[in-house]
Write a structure and sequence with these properties.
The protein is α/β, with parallel strands linked by helices. It has a single domain (2-185), classed as Protein tyrosine phosphatase superfamily (Protein-Tyrosine Phosphatase, Chain A), CATH 3.90.190.10. The protein has helices spanning 2-26, 45-55, 71-83, 100-112, 127-139, 144-147, 167-179, and strands at residues 30-33, 37-40, 59-62, 86-89, 117-120. The protein has a five-stranded mixed beta sheet, sandwiched between helices. α4 (100-112) packs across α5.
C-alpha cells in the first residue's frame, strides 16, 4: 500500500514538473479575455513581438519590476517601443502578500492602460495569476470563485506543492475580495 502511494506521489510530481517545463518553454501565454487581457511568463523578444502582432497588444504590465541591467528587460522595452506598446513596471514578489495599496495601484493601472493588455511575470503563474484574478473580479465583475481560477495548476501555480511562499498570492486575492465583496458573491 505504501509503495502504491509513493508511486502515485512520484507520478504526480513528475507530471507537475513536466507541465511546468512545458509552460516555461512555451512562455505560459494564455488568453484571459480575447481582445482584452492576456497573461504570460517572461517571453523572448521574438515571442513577445509575435504575440503583440497576433493579439494586437497595446499595453504590457511587467510584474517583475524594472530591471534596466538585464538583457530580457532591455529587449522587452525595445520591442514595446518598436511596436508602439505602452509598458509599465510593478515590482511584486510571489512570496510576499501584496498590501491593500499595491492591489489598489495594480487594479487602477490595469483599468487605465489601453487594451488589449498583457500581464507577465517570470513564470506567468503566481503574480500574473493574481493580477488576472484581480482584473476579472475588480474590473469585470466576475464572481470571486470564477476569477480565482486564474491562480490554478494549469497555469503553473503550485501554492502548496512547491514553495509555500507562493500561497501569498492566494492570500492576497482572498484579502482583496474580503475587503471588496461583490454583489454576486454576497447572495
Amino acid at each position: 500500500m505504501l509503495r502504491k502511494i509513493g508511486g502515485a506521489l512520484l507520478a504526480l510530481l513528475l507530471a507537475a514538473m513536466a507541465l511546468f517545463g512545458w509552460l516555461v518553454w512555451e512562455g505560459n501565454y494564455h488568453t484571459v479575455l480575447r481582445g482584452e487581457l492576456y497573461r504570460s511568463g517572461q517571453l523572448s523578444a521574438t515571442q513577445l513581438e509575435e504575440h503583440i502582432r497576433h493579439d494586437h497588444i497595446r499595453s504590457i504590465i511587467n510584474l517583475r519590476g524594472a530591471a534596466p541591467r538585464s538583457e530580457w528587460y532591455r529587449q522587452e522595452l525595445a520591442v514595446a517601443r518598436k511596436e508602439g506598446v505602452a509598458h509599465r513596471d510593478i515590482d511584486l514578489s510571489a512570496d510576499v502578500p501584496l498590501s491593500a495599496a499595491q492591489m489598489k495601484q495594480l487594479v487602477a493601472l490595469m483599468a487605465d492602460l489601453p487594451k488589449p493588455l498583457l500581464l507577465h511575470c517570470l513564470g506567468g503563474a503566481d503574480r500574473t495569476g493574481l493580477a488576472a484574478a484581480l482584473y476579472l473580479y475588480a474590473l469585470k465583475g466576475e464572481p470571486a470563485q470564477q476569477a480565482d481560477g486564474q491562480l490554478a495548476l494549469r497555469y503553473g501555480h503550485f501554492p502548496y506543492l512547491m514553495r509555500a511562499g507562493v500561497a501569498a498570492m492566494d492570500d492576497s486575492f482572498n484579502r482583496y475580495i474580503n475587503a471588496h465583496p461583490a454583489a454576486s458573491d454576497t447572495k
